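User: Predict the structure for this protein chain, please.
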Amino acid sequence: MNQHRENKPHIAFFGRCNVGKSTLVNILTNQNTAIISERKGTTTDAVKKSIEMLEIGACVVIDTAGLDDNSDLGQKRIQKTQEVINLIDLAAIVISENNFSDYELQLIKVLDDKNIPYIIIYNKQDSCPIAETAKREVEKYCPDFICTHHNDEKAREKITALIKKHLITTPYGQKSILNGIINENDIVLLVTPIDVSAPKGRLILPQVKMIREILDNNGINIVVKPEQLEYTLNNAVIKPKLVITDSQVFDTVNKIVPKDIYLTSFSILLAKEKGAFDDYLKGTPKLDDLKDGDRILMLENCTHQPTCEDIGRVKLPAMIKKYTGKNLSFTALAGLSQSEQKPEDYALVIQCGGCVATHKQLQNRLEPFKKANVPITNYGIAIAYMNGIFKRACEIFSL
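Assistant: Here is the predicted structure, written as C-alpha cells:
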C-alpha cells in the first residue's frame, strides 16, 4: 500500500476471503473502489479510498486481503493486511455464513492488544441468515453488530452509523486542541518562517491546521513572518492572547513576545493533540545526560527532500550538539519506516510534530521505544527546553 499518510481516521475492513469486504467498501464509499469477484484472493494489496462522512469529516477506508488465503502469495497478502493494523483507528470485521472462530478471534486479540476499537458486520444475511448460536457468540465481542447484504438499501446508513458511534471513542471524537485555551474573538498570532525549507506557494500543514483550529474555535488569526513580529506587536490595536511559533525561531520569538502573552509552538500543540505529550515531558531532560557516542533517532512522519536548512536533519542536530557539547550520532527515519537497529541502541528518540500522521500511527511508531524504556521527546519541546523556555511554552495547557 502507498506509504503516503493522511491525518484522517483510517478505517480498515478485515475478514476471510469472499465474505464481501470489497462489496461493503464499495457500498460505503458509493464508488467502485474495490474489485469484486467470487474468485478467492481478488483483493491483493490493501486498497484505500478517501471519503467524507457527516459529523466526522474526511476518512480513509481500506479494503484488505482475506485472512484465510493459505497460498504462498496469500501469506504475503496476509502480511500486508497485518501491517495495515498499525495505520488504522477503527477496524470493521466482516463475517458471513456463520463463520466466527479462530481467524476472527486472533484478529480481535491483536486489535485489543493495540487498543484499536472494532465493529463487526455480518454480511450475506439474505442468502445465509445468522444463526442464533453465532449471534450470541458475536454479541460477546460486539453487542451492537449489524447484519446486512449487498441489496440492503440501508446498508450504507447502518455501516456509517456504527462507524460514527465507535469513532467517538477515538481522538477524532474528542474536542479541538484549542478548546478551552482560546475563546470566541480571542486573537492568536502565528509566526511562520519562510525559508528555503518552506514549500513553494503554500504554508506547511501544521500552520494550515492551526489556522483552521482557531477558526473552528471562533478565534481571530494574524499570520506574520518572524521579521514582522515585533512591528505587529507594537502596532496591533488589540493584544493577542496567544502566540504560536515555528519551533526553530523559538528563541527569537521568546525575546520579542511580552511575558503576559502566552507562547507555544505548532509542534508542541501537535504533541499535545497526538497523545504522547506526557512521555515527551518525561523524556526531554535526557538531553542533559547525553554522552559522547550516544545515538539519537530523529523520527519524521512526512517524506520530503532535505535541504541545508532542514529542521530535523540539520538545524536540530546542530543545536543539540552545541547544547550538550558532546560528539553524538544522528539517524533520520522518514515515513512510517521502522528502524533497522534495536530500540535500545538509541539514547534518545526525537519525534517530529507528526502533522501528517494519525494519533494511532504515531502511538504505534513510538511504542517499541517506550517498551524498551528509551526516552522520547518532540522537536518543539526539545527546542523549548534547550532555549530555557520549556515552562513558558507549556504554560498554556494549565488554563
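The radius of gyration is 24 Å.
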